[in-house]
Amino acid sequence: MSRPPLSHLHGYLNSVTDKRQAKKVIHKLGDLLFIAVVATIANAGCWEEVSDFARTRLEWLRKYIELPGGAPSHDTFERVFKWIDGKQFERCFILWMREICKEKGFRVIAIDGKTMRGSRDRALDKTPLHIVSAWTSENNMVLGQVKTEEKSNEITAIPLLLELLDVKGAVVTIDAMGTQKDIATKICERGADYILSVKKNQLTIYEDIETLVQEESKTNYSDIKHEHYKTLDKGHGRIEVREYWLFPEVSWASWAAEWKNLGAIGVVKRRITKGDIVTEEMAYYITSLKSNVQQFATGVRSHWGVESMHWSLDVVLNEDKRTVRKDNGAQNLAVLKRMALNIIRADNTFEKASGPRKRFRACLDNSYLETVLSNM
Questions:
Q1: Looking at residue 9, what is its pLDDT?
Q2: What is the pLDDT, as a whole number, of residue 3?
Q3: CATH for 92-311, among 3.40.630.30, 3.40.50.720, 3.40.50.300, 3.90.350.10?
Q4: Residue of 166, 191, 170, 162 whose CA lies nearest to 107
Q5: Across-strand partners of 228?
Q6: 3-class DSSP state for residue 286?
Q7: For 187, what's the count of Cα atoms within 13 Å in the CB-facing half-sphere?
Q8: What is the distance in angstroms between the CA of the first residue and the CA of the last residue of the chain?
Q9: pLDDT for 333
Q10: Residue 330 Cα to chain centre, angstroms
């Protein structure tokens, strides 16, 4: 079958193992996954709408996939997404993103978790699914994900995600939940640097850094080796000043040797002025970066940007409103949403359009939908 050029996505989707009985298969697994991704981009929000998309765009879809059995039913999509091997689908996503996100010199990979509230089942006392994702600001895309049933298990999920990702040469940023010695070691073993947030879950480190800042700030850090960087942002009636410090001398800390390749302590001070109201906050970090405070600042700022990814999953794709609880459904739906979000975000042809507006236009206009897909 001759298909017009589109992307490598369909090829990766075809790599997911189909465990169904061959004699009973009407629709190829790769085709079902492809339709689900494309329909989600084109504003479908449930399996009934995915099936409706397939029925109304059947001839258009046949430009890319054969569909000898016609449009699949919504029950078919729901069943398939329940039993697909979640880990294999996650790996398919990660391998696809490796190809899309080529190295761009200095890279920051932010790792953070998000709870899928719609996956909670109170009747069965089942906690909601928690997804740990990796995000890159350079490409503005999710690089991959792994699931964990409990938020505390981020500590075990993060090394699994690092094992799957290509992080060599990057700086990996993680919030305080992931500030663990084994995770720092894993990042270094994978050929990357780390910036790890320090809060009171690492109380000794937190108190030692706080004491350092309190004492040395009295002389404006003139008695200690450091690098300093300052930024100023104005807009929407507020002024935000950020100051960043790197302190490369860490031998004084009793815990320093326990952290793989520890290079410096990082400190960030944010001062926000809005009218007569001034707020100030401090944030502490440990990092394998031994110098270059501007790289440290870029890493910290990029990690704050991962929140926009969580926001987009809720606002653009209504992730928290989707109720999926059984089998692998919630895990696989999370992969599907992140695939669709990456493709939507990659499109720059619809100038200044929001994510929901892009999805609505893709629903109305086949040519625009093709343009969005061809970007990947």
A1: 74
A2: 42
A3: 3.90.350.10
A4: 170
A5: 245
A6: strand
A7: 30
A8: 21
A9: 84
A10: 16
Return the DSSP state at 110: E
Residue type, 295: Q
Per the CB < 8 A criterion, the answer to whether 110 and 134 are in contact is yes
**Domain segments of the chain as ranges:** 9-84+327-374, 92-311
How many other C-beta atoms can be found within 10 angstroms of the C-beta atom of residue 54? 27
Q: What is the Cα gyration radius of the chain?
A: 23
Token readout for 110 is: 């932010």
For helices 29-41 and 329-346, the axis angle rounded to 10 degrees is: 60
Backbone φ and ψ for 228, nearest 5 degrees, come out as: -130, 145
φ and ψ of 179, to 5 deg: -80, 85
Task: Name the residue among 163, 185, 179 with its Cα closest to residue 87.
Answer: 163
Q: In the numeric block, which tokens belong to residue 8? A: 């490598």
What is the model's pLDDT at position 223?
94
Q: What secondary structure letter does DSSP report for 358? A: H
At 345, which amino acid appears? R
C-alpha closest to that of 66 among 146, 152, 135, 3? 3
Task: Find tokens 């078919």 and name the residue.
Answer: 76
Integer angstrom CA distances of residue 145 from 10, 135, 180, 284: 19, 9, 19, 26
How many CB atoms sit inside 10 A of residue 165's CB? 21
Provide the pLDDT for residue 100.
73
- Walk along the chain (376 residues) in steps of 10 and give the mean pLDDT of each run: 52 80 77 92 92 95 89 93 86 81 71 67 59 82 76 80 90 94 97 97 96 95 96 90 97 96 98 94 97 95 74 61 60 84 85 87 93 79
Q: How many CB atoms lie within 10 A of CB 112?
A: 21
- Confirm if 317 and 342 have CB atoms less than 8 A apart: no
Per the structure block, which two tokens stand in for 13? 């989707």
